Amino acid sequence: MRYFILFFFTSCVLLAQHSKRILFKNATVHIGNGEVIENAYLSIKENKIDMVSNATNVRIDISQFDTTIDVFGKHIYPALIAPNCILGLQEAEAVRQTSDYNETGNFNPHVRSVIAYNAESKILETVKTNGVLYTQSTPRGGRIPGTSSILATVGWNWEDAVLKMDDGVHVNFPSMIEKHGWWAEPEPNSRNKQYDNDLKQLQEFFENAYAYYQSTTVSEQNLRYDAMKGVFNGSKNLYLKADYVKDIISAVDFAEKFKIKKIIIVGGKDSYKITSFLKKHQVAIMLNRLHDLPDLPEQPTDILYKLPYLLHKDSVMFCLQNQGDMEAMNARNLPFLAGTAAAYGLTKEEALQSISLNAAKILGVDSLIGSLESGKLASFIVSEGDILDMKTNHITMAFINGQAISLTNFQTDLYKKYSNKLGIKP
After folding, report:
1. Contact assessment for residue 123 and residue 330, using Cβ atoms and an 8 Å cutoff
2. Alpha-carbon distances, residue 247 vs 155, 203, 288, 321 (angstroms)
3. CATH homologous superfamily, domain 2-78+383-422
4. Fold annotation for 80-382
5. Alpha helices in 111-157 (DSSP H)
6. For 269-300, what is each residue's pLDDT tens digit?
7. pLDDT tens per residue across span 166-197
8. Phi/psi at 272 (nearest 5 deg)?
9. What is each CA distance from 361 to 77, 110, 307, in whole angstroms?
10. What gap in Å lies between CA 171 and CA 351, rounded to an integer?
11. Sign of CA dihedral 109, 110, 114, 117
12. Domain edges within the chain
């Protein structure tokens, strides 16, 4: 019965996606900014949200809409955003030839992830079915891995999928601490003996790039330094990977020496210890995956789960991301990371913001996506239950730019195939 209803709704939407106006009624709409509207109307016109309102606050003339869809008992959420991710850049982690996120060299700000984005990736099909409709495709490797871009998880090609081109440059800031071992067999950390040399090399590169940026006459074009101009003039973000207190402070101070306006810390495991410093310098945090263990044995086991709450209570802007092992395939678990944050201090709507509006603000695309507000792109999902809860999460419809997208993939196809074979009712 569930699949018949899903097929019916999807068929109605696909027939209507070229129409002028579509109305969703009787939904619980989670705006993404902390507001929830019960018994709501949401309408889309062309590719944008036309109206969001409580049914008691507005009179609707149904005849003014080309298609009306009743989603009684369901929830509408803004499209989820996966920042700092290699989605679309890696297909099979064990097959090197399918990975295209790490270029040769140590300083590669001119390397653009957007042109390597594989819109036909099978992994993209699996994450969109759990509401992740946008990603920040991000390069890895080296001191400066390259420049990221914001793309939809559906598109004919990267040109079709791109939402914001070349949004920022990523830097793996030198760490004073060197980690050893792995989670199953941890070993004591040690001082990074290469720290001074690594920092000196980064300093020299930035000084040369800044001098190039300030120069009015350049005899020879330098692609690496050209890519840094946006960081210095404020049109691009600077993403600094740092986890520990001294590294975070050093990274922020380093960036401010070059008058960089948009500074984002990626990782930030110790960020809760220096919230006053982060607020003073207006630095946002892309928190690393919450489903991880602390680095130090004396830390509480659940400290990473509490990080979102600790930053939120001190008014530090943050969002969630999932960098680490198998991050592309695990991007579909993004709503459950937010669910963990909700279980450890945040409200459900605050947790939702960490993977929608907050992420959009940090990436600089909040005028387009991140919340369900009039004038923004009609990119949203419809779920039968709470998307942050693994028990109730069941997405039945999804839209990107006002267009209904398919929610099937090879995993759902296999599920149906063997359910039918074994006579198992969904």
Report:
1. no
2. 38, 15, 15, 19
3. Urease, subunit C, domain 1 (2.30.40.10)
4. TIM Barrel (3.20.20)
5. 122-128
6. 999 999 999 999 999 999 999 999 888 888 89
7. 999 999 999 998 888 776 777 888 888 999 99
8. -65, -15
9. 17, 24, 19
10. 27
11. negative
12. 2-78+383-422, 80-382
